[in-house]
């Protein structure tokens, strides 16, 4: 599959909803937490595959604002897994020139998770290859409302006039202000939803859905999604003839 990919038309930014860990665990007669644990290896696989192809950004939906409503034991297991995985992977992130970033309301995470993330982000900040962005305690509506609030304050303080309210100015108040919009969004496990993920940023993204559960995802699945993306016609409102 990798050989079929046109290296001149690689999407700069791929966003991924990693779904199906719970169902994978159930299918294998394991606890849900073990499904999440099995979800770490695919993170590694897609990061490596993305790096090899020259993808500049991968954003992973690792924990949504809604995920706080899960049973406490599962939330605790996910937070612990995040810390242990980052500690384990930091060496390889550095070796592979991968920069780690986060988006979301990090202040709501346990302090040990915040500390581990802050350190990993700082330690990889000079890396120039793939930027791996973890969306944690992330919700798109909250992000958009917060951007509107920040602009309202600027307006109130006379730092902005009504005519300054452009799409670009709005984008600059989002978590992703320095990051290009994703051109491709992948969701695993057969669910056909956006689930409050990067709703502003995905406006023109191609959406790719696979029935595979996240823990079963390997490099080749990522290549397949890129290949599929490359065979779509992206018109941005124009006609085929205009392109
Ligand atoms: C969705 O599956 C998955 C999550 C809510 C968590 C994703 C976390 C990981 C893959 C762990 C590793 C992450 C990092 C960044 C080290 P689900 O639980 O909703 O599955 P279900 O729909 O089958 O129940």
Question: Care to give the gist of this entry?
Answer:
This protein is α/β, with parallel strands linked by helices and 243 residues long. The chain contains 8 helices and 6 strands. The model has no long low-confidence stretch (mean pLDDT 96).
Major sheet characteristics: 6 strands, parallel
Q: What's the number of structural domains?
A: 1
Secondary structural class: alpha/beta
Summed over residues and divided by their number, the pLDDT gives a mean of: 96
Chemical compounds bound to the protein: farnesyl diphosphate
Distance between the termini: 27 Å
CATH superfamily: Decaprenyl diphosphate synthase-like
**Helix tally?**
8
Which sequence of strands runs across the widest sheet? 3-4-2-1-5-6
- Pick out the low-confidence regions: none
CATH class: Alpha Beta
Multimeric status of the protein: single chain
Q: Number of DSSP strands?
A: 6
Structure commentary:
By secondary structure, this protein is of the alpha/beta class. Helix content is 40%, strand content 14%. It is globular. 32% of the residues are buried. The mean pLDDT is 96. Helix 5 (111-123) links the parallel strand 3 (99-103) and strand 4. It has helices at 21-27, 32-37, 40-53, 72-95, 111-123, 140-156, 167-171, 219-230; strands at 13-17, 57-64, 99-103, 131-138, 184-187, 206-209. The longest helix is centred in the middle third of the chain and has 24 residues, at 72-95. It has eight helices and six strands, in the order βαααβαβαβααββα. The protein has a six-stranded parallel sheet, with helices on both faces. The chain has one domain (13-139, 184-230): Decaprenyl diphosphate synthase-like (Undecaprenyl pyrophosphate synthetase, 3-Layer(aba) Sandwich). Bound molecules: farnesyl diphosphate. The site of farnesyl diphosphate has 20 residues, from helix 1, helix 3, strand 2 and helix 4.
């Amino acid at each position: 599959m990798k050989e079929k990919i046109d290296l001149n038309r690689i999407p700069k930014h791929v966003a991924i909803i990693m779904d199906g860990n719970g169902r994978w665990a159930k299918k294998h007669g394991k606890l849900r937490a073990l499904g999440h644990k099995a979800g770490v290896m695919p993170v590694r696989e897609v990061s490596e595959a993305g790096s090899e192809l020259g993808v500049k950004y991968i954003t992973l939906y690792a924990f949504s604002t809604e995920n706080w409503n899960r049973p406490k034991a599962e939330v605790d297991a996910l937070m612990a897994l995040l810390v242990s995985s980052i500690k384990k992977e930091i060496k390889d992130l550095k070796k592979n020139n991968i920069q780690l970033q986060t988006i979301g309301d990090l202040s709501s995470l346990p302090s040990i998770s915040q500390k581990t993330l802050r350190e990993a982000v700082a330690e990889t900040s000079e890396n120039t290859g793939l930027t791996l962005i973890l969306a944690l305690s992330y919700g798109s509506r909250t992000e958009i409302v917060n951007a509107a609030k920040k602009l309202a304050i600027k307006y109130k303080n006379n730092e902005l006039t009504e005519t300054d309210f452009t799409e670009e100015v709005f984008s600059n108040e989002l978590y992703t202000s320095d990051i290009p919009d994703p051109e491709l969004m992948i969701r695993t496990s057969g669910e056909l939803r956006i689930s409050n993920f990067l709703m502003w940023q995905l406006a023109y993204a191609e959406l790719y859905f696979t029935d595979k559960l996240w823990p079963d995802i390997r490099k080749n699945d990522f290549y397949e999604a890129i290949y599929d993306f490359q065979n779509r016609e992206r018109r941005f409102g124009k006609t085929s003839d205009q392109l």
